[in-house]
Specification:
The two termini are 34 Å apart. The protein has a 7-stranded mixed β-sheet with strand order 9-8-7-14-15-17-16, sandwiched between helices. By secondary structure, it is an alpha/beta fold. Helix content is 26%, strand content 26%. The protein has 8 helices and 17 strands.
Length: 294
């Protein structure tokens, strides 16, 4: 962290980083010239003499992390977040969140019986054998003939199971939180039905979504994905594509949540794009070297 000492006024910027170019403090007569200035700023204090008052601003650099192929904003979690993990696999994602957030309260949903049986979840987490979908009811889940850990409710081959489907409204009610700090959604194509059928007021209770859309398998999903993004933007969400191709990794963040923490929208978008490019380069190198890609 950088501390910028303004004489006779001291401006403590720690732990917030103050990007100075060059790394000096230019006083004119009491001001700190930031280059480049963020487009948004949050006033936190004033300092100075009676005749010369200087406003002090803080700019939060967002903490973006990637967990099992999903990007999320760690600043919006806190120590005791409420999390929905839809498509929970064997519980790896929720265990990672728990390691960072000791007070985690989570609901993990998995429709594949093999994965559900092997799932291990931390304390404070409920696991549910069901399929997240647009409406409550029942559906037939088909396992993948080639991948025992794959499958969906749209298939027509593989071993078939009948199970409950749960809407987003039902899942939120079961979690029992007013504010949901994170929803991770990877449900093999059912994510569109799930979100399209959710009421506006319900979606606005979420701080962020990290979603794998499946247009890489279903090209006809693209118009629905674009329409969903437009709807979410009108509801006050920032939509960030964190993958170079298709929409395999999309972070959707509540703008009010960012503003309340002094996080500029362009900063989070810039970091996600940089991380996506880095991941694409690493994957391409691994392919050329014949290495396994996680």
């Amino acid at each position: 962290p950088v501390t910028c000492h303004l004489s006779p006024v001291t401006c403590h910027l720690s732990p917030v980083t103050c990007l100075l170019s060059p790394v000096t403090c230019h006083l004119s007569p009491v001001s700190c010239l930031l280059s480049p200035p963020p487009p948004e700023r949050s006033e936190i204090a004033t300092a100075g003499t009676r005749d010369n008052t200087q406003k002090i601003y803080t700019f939060m650099k967002p903490t973006i992390i990637e967990l099992r192929g999903h990007h999320l904003c760690a600043d919006l979690l806190g120590q005791d977040p409420c999390v929905l993990d839809l498509g929970g696999h064997k519980g790896e994602f929720v265990r990672e969140v728990k390691s960072r957030c000791p007070g985690l309260r989570a609901l993990v949903v998995e429709a594949n019986p093999v994965l559900f049986e092997a799932m291990q979840v931390p304390q404070g987490t409920e696991k549910v054998f069901a399929a997240a979908s647009g409406a409550d009811g029942t559906a037939t889940f088909y396992t993948s003939p080639t991948n025992p850990e794959g499958g969906n409710i749209f298939g027509e081959s593989g071993q078939a199971y009948t199970l409950d489907t749960l809407s987003l409204q039902t899942l939120v009610g079961r979690l029992g939180c007013d504010r949901i700090h994170l929803a991770k959604i990877d449900i093999e194509g059912a994510e569109l039905d799930l979100l399209e059928q959710a009421p506006d007021a319900l979606l606005q209770r979420f701080s962020q979504f990290t979603i794998e859309f499946h247009d890489f398998l279903h090209a006809d999903h693209v118009p629905r994905i674009e329409a969903l993004f437009q709807r979410l933007q009108k509801l006050g969400f920032l939509v960030i594509k964190c993958s170079m191709k298709f929409h395999r990794d999309v972070l959707i963040v509540n703008i009010k949540e960012l503003e309340s923490r002094g996080i500029a929208q362009d900063a989070i978008s810039r970091i996600c794009r940089r991380m996506a490019l880095k991941r694409a380069i690493v994957h391409n190198l691994k392919r050329k070297l014949g290495m396994e890609i996680e």
